[in-house]
Design a protein that fits this description.
By secondary structure, the protein is mainly beta. It has one domain (10-85). Helices cover 6% and strands 51% of the residues. It is built from 1 helix and 6 strands; from the N terminus they run E-E-E-H-E-E-E. It has one helix spanning 49-53; strands at residues 10-13, 16-27, 32-39, 57-61, 64-73, 81-85. It has a 6-stranded antiparallel barrel with strand order 1-2-3-6-5-4. The radius of gyration is 12 Å and the shape is globular. The relative contact order is 0.25. The mean pLDDT is 79. Residues 6-69 form the Aminomethyltransferase C-terminal domain. It holds the Pfam family GCV_T_C. This is Aminomethyltransferase C-terminal domain-containing protein.
């Protein structure tokens, strides 16, 4: 199944809303669509690599949630970047 989205779809972390997809690209390494987005943590939490890796993610597309896998890397001093993709 091909899931094609542009942006604005909600992202859920452990079943709770945590952000929106901001852009979509085709990842030639993954041979899949890759979604980029911003994640928000509760005010008492700091987003770290462990915070991201220790979670399950879903992206809501047309009222259906699809399981997403995270891939974390840190290309700059800005902090961790998360790529989300589905099977």
């Amino acid at each position: 199944m091909v899931i094609e989205i542009l942006s604005g779809e909600p992202i859920y972390r452990n079943g709770e809303f945590c952000g929106f997809v901001t852009s979509t690209v085709y990842g030639f390494t993954f041979e899949k669509l890759v979604w980029l987005g911003f994640l928000h943590a509760p005010s008492s939490k700091k987003i770290t690599v462990n915070y991201i890796r220790g979670s399950t993610y879903e992206i809501n597309i047309a009222t259906k949630r699809f399981k997403a896998h995270s891939n974390v890397y840190q290309p700059t001093e800005m902090g961790p970047t998360v790529l989300l993709y589905t099977n």
